[in-house]
Design brief:
- The protein is of the alpha+beta class and 258 residues long.
- 24% of the residues lie in helices and 26% in strands.
- It has a single domain, classed as 4-Layer Sandwich (Deoxyribonuclease I, Chain A).
- Strand 6 and strand 7 form a beta hairpin.
- It binds one DNA strand of 18 nucleotides through loops.
- Keywords: Hydrolase, Magnesium, Manganese, Metal-binding.
DNA sequence: ATGCCCGCTTGCAGCGGA
């Protein structure tokens, strides 16, 4: 089974790129972020024509998350992160696919730091960590996949010293991410490739992709109930080089049969 | 320190992204 996460940066603007990648990569389940579209503008017909069922949680202009499953409709289990009923941003969606619980997240960027956006990021991360802890207690096969907007370590940044004060790399968010790992979650790509430089994002500016000035922001975290099934993991970085591409590339893992 | 690029908008310039 192949599971992927992809920040599409506008699902309608990127639809040709998304469909081309789905046809090429043939993932069984996909978490999408940054739909940048309200619910009624989700391109369901095109997704279904490509062979995928979908659940989604959209929002006008910004944010928005979706979960796709090949040949099936994901069974939605949650569409808000618990703990703050006033939070209206569409950044979390959870569904069961093929016996696995998939949490699809788009963690806030948090820049500029300090400031209200930074505070929102820390609050969101705290709520996410509490929900992740609750999910661990269930003992279920859970995967939390998405754009975490955190580079977990030095080797996840092309030039770490330039990013020390940035909301994506400040000690607070790196510590929050490390806390997830300490709690028992497995960072799939880092687990299988402990020393490699791995990037999942290249800025549109300054020819970042051409210079390979990238960041690793998109992660798949596996609960202990499913981590032993992990086989391979990678980044489809060539997709970032396609015309009209997102600034993120798709990230994927494969799992052995249960 | 800013713009560089990109998609989005009760749109044609401003915002958010990372």
């Amino acid at each position: 089974m192949k599971i992927a996460t992809y920040n599409v940066n506008g699902i309608n603007g990127r639809l040709p790129v998304l469909l081309r990648w789905l046809g090429e990569a043939q993932p069984d389940a996909v978490c999408l972020q940054e739909l940048k579209a309200p619910d009624e503008r989700f391109p369901l017909a095109a997704i279904e024509a490509a062979g995928y069922g979908a659940v989604w949680h959209g929002q006008k202009s910004w944010n928005g998350v979706a979960i796709l499953a090949r040949g099936a409709k994901p069974v939605e289990t949650r569409r808000f992160l618990p703990g703050n009923p006033d939070d209206t941003q569409s950044r979390y969606l959870e569904a069961a696919v093929n016996g696995i619980i998939l949490g699809c997240l788009y963690l806030p960027n948090g820049n500029p730091a300090p400031g209200p956006k930074w505070e929102y990021k820390l609050d969101w991360f705290g709520r996410f960590a509490r929900h992740a802890a609750d999910m661990l207690k269930t003992g279920l096969p859970v995967i939390l996949a998405g754009d975490y907007n955190v580079m977990p370590g030095e080797r996840d940044v092309y030039k770490p010293e330039r990013w020390t004060d940035d909301a994506l790399f400040r000690p607070e968010v790196r510590a929050a991410y490390a806390g997830l790992i300490d709690a028992g979650w497995t960072d799939a790509l880092r687990h299988l490739h402990p020393e490699e430089r791995i990037y999942t994002f290249w800025d549109y500016l300054r020819n970042a992709y051409g210079r390979d000035a990238g960041l690793r922001l998109d992660h798949l975290l596996l609960a202990p109930a499913i981590a032993p099934r992990l086989r391979t993991a990678g980044v489809d970085r060539h997709v970032r080089g396609w015309d009209k591409s997102s600034d993120h590339a798709p990230v994927w893992i494969t799992l052995a049969k249960p």
